[in-house]
Write a structure and sequence with these properties.
185 residues; alpha+beta; 7-stranded antiparallel beta sheet; 4-stranded antiparallel beta sheet
């Protein structure tokens, strides 16, 4: 059976078909249903996901420009790319700006930040502080420290020499986590 047509008497290809009497109403109804379906799909997508686009020129994650963020997946996972809301980083980054970094440290981890290396539980993660410290106009030694992450603290780092990350501003809190970020391209 063809959609929008009714069987009638006659013979076209063995059967005869005729147009419905109120074709405009049928087209409008189908259009309205299509628009409603699209609106519901977009609403669902917006409630559970969003697409993030890196706009800065100094990247913290190589070869990553576009991310799919899954808001429903806030489970802290070591090494996962996570999106979180910035807090207290101005004037460099405004509050509530979405940032994507690797979650390298979890509660209870020992973090050692040195001028030439940073390690978590003895495993080196990222190197030299100099490039970012120079951009900030501060001596790299200012950021050297050792700390144990508290019960609600997570260490977020990039993978490039120009990554502005937890080495400079410290750990984030659970409430800042927006969701898991997947690199699309």
């Amino acid at each position: 059976m063809m959609i929008g047509y009714r069987k009638s008497e006659g013979n076209i290809g063995g059967e005869r078909w005729r147009r419905p009497k109120n074709r405009k109403v049928a087209v409008l109804a189908k259009s309205a249903l299509g628009i409603l379906a699209i609106a519901l799909a977009l609403s669902y997508f917006k409630a559970h996901y969003f697409i993030g686009i890196m706009t800065q020129t100094a990247r913290c994650i190589d070869n990553a420009t576009v991310f799919l963020v899954v808001k429903d997946d806030k489970t802290p996972v070591r090494g996962a790319t996570m999106a979180f809301a910035s807090r207290g980083l101005s004037p460099i980054v405004e509050d509530d700006q979405v940032i994507v970094k690797f979650m390298d440290g979890l509660p209870g981890d020992q973090v050692n930040v040195g001028v030439r290396h940073t390690s978590i539980n003895g495993t080196e993660i990222v190197g030299d502080l100099s490039a970012v410290a120079d951009n900030l106009g501060v001596a790299p030694e200012r950021f050297v420290r050792q700390q144990t992450l508290g019960q609600d603290e997570y260490w977020m780092q990039g993978r490039t020499a120009k990554s502005f990350d937890s080495r400079f501003w410290g750990p984030i809190k659970t409430e800042q986590i927006i969701g898991r970020a997947y690199i699309l391209f």
